[in-house]
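Page 42, continued from yesterday. The earlier attempt failed because a stray header line got pasted into the input along with the sequence. Redoing it now with the clean sequence only.
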Amino acid sequence: MMRPTTGCWSRWKYMKRFILRFNALVTFLVVIVKHVFTMRFHGQLRLEGFIFSNCNTTLNYTSGSLYEQNLNLTLSYLVANASLTGFYTTSIGENSDVVYGLVQCRGDLSKVDCHACANTAATEIRQLCFSQKEASVGYINCSLQYSAQRFFSTFDSFPGVQLHNTKTATDPALFKSQSGNLVKNLSSKAASNPSRFDLGFTSYTDFNDIYGMAQCTQDLAENTCLTCLQEIASHVPECCDGYVGATLISKSCYLRYEIYSFFLSPIAHQPPPVASPPSPSLLEPKASHAGKKSNSKIILIIVIPLALALTVLATGCAGYLFWKKAKRNGVDDVPDLLEDGNNSMDALLIGLRSLKVATNNFSEAYKLGEGGFGPVYKGTLPDEQEIAVKRLSRSSEQGLAELKTEVMLVAKLLHRNLVRLLGFCLEDEEKLLVYEYLPNGSLDKILFDQRRPFGLEWERRFKIIVGIARGLLYLHEDSQLRIVHRDLKASNILLDEEMNPKISDFGLAKLFCGSQTHGNTNRISGTFGYMAPEYAKNGKFSTKSDAFSFGVLVMEIITGRKNSSFRNFSNLQSYAWQHWANGTALELLDPRLGDQWPRYEVLKCFHIGLLCVQEAPAERPTMSEVVMMLNSYTINSTVPSQPAFYVRQESSADSQQSVARLESYGALELDQLAEATQSVNDITVTELCPR
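This time it went through. Structure tokens are written below.
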């Protein structure tokens, strides 16, 4: 029997966490049981639907413009990232075409509902405010806004929405006092909470409590949030005085209170909603008081034994499961992996038995390939979902580190050009990662297979280049984490059924914190030929290291040849730069492409690829600049010089002539090609699409 890799302290932490989770379940069940015996229903005003829109008609954009393209991308990013934390901001573009966007969901809204609400908002804001450069739209569960001007960290407290319950308070003075204190307390707590959100309730009568909610957009500072909530609360007397419920919503803050619970998730010690009392003439005060006591006794008689039974059961289950898991090697790996503060990792755990059934016990017939840390198998889950299971080597200590890195990073990333992690498993010495299955496999198998008579047509190759660039841009700048991949290569690019690229294998990825942009390591890991010189020689890495790998990959996609397949020259970038300098770059194009390719687009990709493999990191473009160049007809950038790891194969005189040809070829040729896309009135049309 294998003993756990760490001592009693780690096992105690695991059991303690397990017991705490069971106790939380017990508390929740007690609340449910209490509700079963005391809850009575009454009508509630449903406000899930559309509430407001605000379109600035003084600022407009034209259909098909760069601003519209940036807006579409902004909305896509907001929808894709809204459910991660319930809040997301982004900006896309430059100068007059920049778009700033923000989305926020209610703090008690589930991730699924948050995504659905954000998707609806992004769709309807385009319909409601078509051609406007500044707009906002709100619902009871989420809000979304965009503008050509930066509005982050500033607030607008004007309540564009002012709604009130149709019922009036039986004791207006008491209700005003109690609701006012509740709003004041909730505003203070919400402002000091990092999520800028708080729920709560207070007593009102023997039959009713007042429930309240306060929220600000998370970009606001604590003092700014509190000011916004205080200002919006100041409008209550003029719109909702005397009514038993109010909802006030501005662009930056949200306030609501009712005499019934409208919360979307339970809170601790939440009192159950109770029906309105009968007429006083039909109910004597003493009888009412006695009735409350009688009901309380019944509840206690039922709830207390049930709570004790559940506690005993929880403790017993915790002990049994702890004993059972202690027999497995790696028992403490799962708790350690989940201790980054994200309990959502629990949902990613998949049992070993399920994965054995899915892959026919890791049958060779199901094997898709083998990477540096182990084989990958195709599988099918009981719901018919196809998966790819990465089985890390049992004997590799490095493999466990890679698994933890992938789970903690990839689970927090969501982008169409990144492979999606579905789960992981750490049982019986197995270390398994479960990904979405991508039917077209890895790029290298298609790109470098010379047996394919036609290969990938240029349109698909260019689409793959752009997709990889967008995936890297997300990792470097647009995700909540700043990540350097460190192992970008053709075999780590997977293709879905429509040949869309997805970056995979984050085992070597490094996370940058805050404003950090560079890192250093004594452990050089990766694939030679794709490594940037500063990383291969000195262990220094940054986002520009990924840019170097991207440049090599771009030239492989253009030529259809591996970087390691060149003999006369030591690497592909030397060969490519030599032809670029001689004005013969198009001779390197994969012959399987025939003549079905746009000349300016191929030359543009050569230019970008050579810029990315420059010796000095500062001379390489960022991925945002790469994406912009890929979506432009012209490149306003420097002429690439000799790349890193360049092997000279000519005399100095020839080199000077080549550089002269290079300057002419790199600048003039692309401008001439761009003229083919000019409009009839000789005004140059230049498209710049940052995404």
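Notes: DSSP finds 18 helices and 21 strands in the chain.
Reminder to self: strip header lines before submitting.
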